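hiii, so i know i said id send this last week but things got crazy w the move. better late than never?? heres the sequnce for the chain we talked about at the cafe, plus the structure i predicted for it. fair warning i was half asleep when i ran it
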Amino acid sequence: MKASNKSFLLMLAIYVGLVLFEWYLDDYYRQCDDLLGRILMVVHHAIVIFHLLCPFLFGLHWFHLIVSLFVIGGWYVYGHCILTKIHNTRCNIEDTTKHVNLVSHLTSSLGIYSLYHPLYESYCWFLVCYDLYKIRFP
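okay and structure toks below
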């Protein structure tokens, strides 16, 4: 097997492992009785991990830039993540409940949950800048 294939498989294993770990942290998943709601929650975890780590694991800077702009744009247009709204509705989870992800879990564990949104949004804008830099200077 080529070294590049081994590297890709390692990055894919890291990605899948982090998605599974984030899913494991989500207590709301176990409370959800709706199949589509559960599927959307898992997809949401996969999108979050992709969004947070894709440029470092896989590159794909153009694709990641587009995903990032859709994610950030959705927050500004709707005032929240549309996927969170949909799966919360399907799973009968309170409307104001935020999606459980690695960042929210970490900030909560450290007692700095009030910094979750500013840290997360700042990191997302950093990723946009990073993608633009890597696109311009490959």
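btw The CA atoms of residues 68 and 128 lie 7 Å apart. thought thatd interest u
miss u guys!!
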